[in-house]
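Researcher: If only I could read backbone structure tokens as easily as an amino acid sequence. Walk me, if you will, through where the backbone shape changes along the chain. I have put the entry right below:
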Amino acid sequence: MTDPAIVTHRPSAPASVAGHSARQHDWLVGQLPAGMLADDFFVRFVRIFQAEAHTLLSHADTLPHLADPRLAPIEMVRYLSGWLAAPEVDDAYGPHAQRQMLLTVAKTLPWRGTRKALVTLLELYSGAPVTISESGGVFDQGRAPDGARWVRLEVTSTGPLAEEDFVELVRDEVPAHVGVEIVVAGRQIWPGDGSAPAAGRQER
């Protein structure tokens, strides 16, 4: 006849969690021979090592998810942002926003330096529409306009970012040879002399 105490310690069938087999609570104890399971002191002694091993195995179980911005710990999300040379995330942004920023930077990386990427990124950081005027375009050979290249950005707010941080964000994303003007709520914040924009510029 089977000892009821032995049956109590044996693990049940593993449950499925997110498509993976879940490790049972007494996964290590359950591997002991029946004679050892009958010794309560020995079982409790083995559970000490089981608890320690469980921590290490849990890290291994979650390893495939550490590179997923939707599931990774927020500290890992910030670390992954560094891989993409993304702007440093301000603490004023919540965890959901930080995850969204990483996903957006990854999506726009092939377009970095273009109008499309700049609008997408700045609207995410500022939480407001962005209006861009620029000198760029597609021209026939020999028909490109002379003079320095420029871009003018207008937003109603910089969001949680301080204005100086917003300026740095823009300057990091705009090609180095392009002059930048930044206007927030009708006030030019870059260049910092408050000068009026050059005449004749038309929004494209």
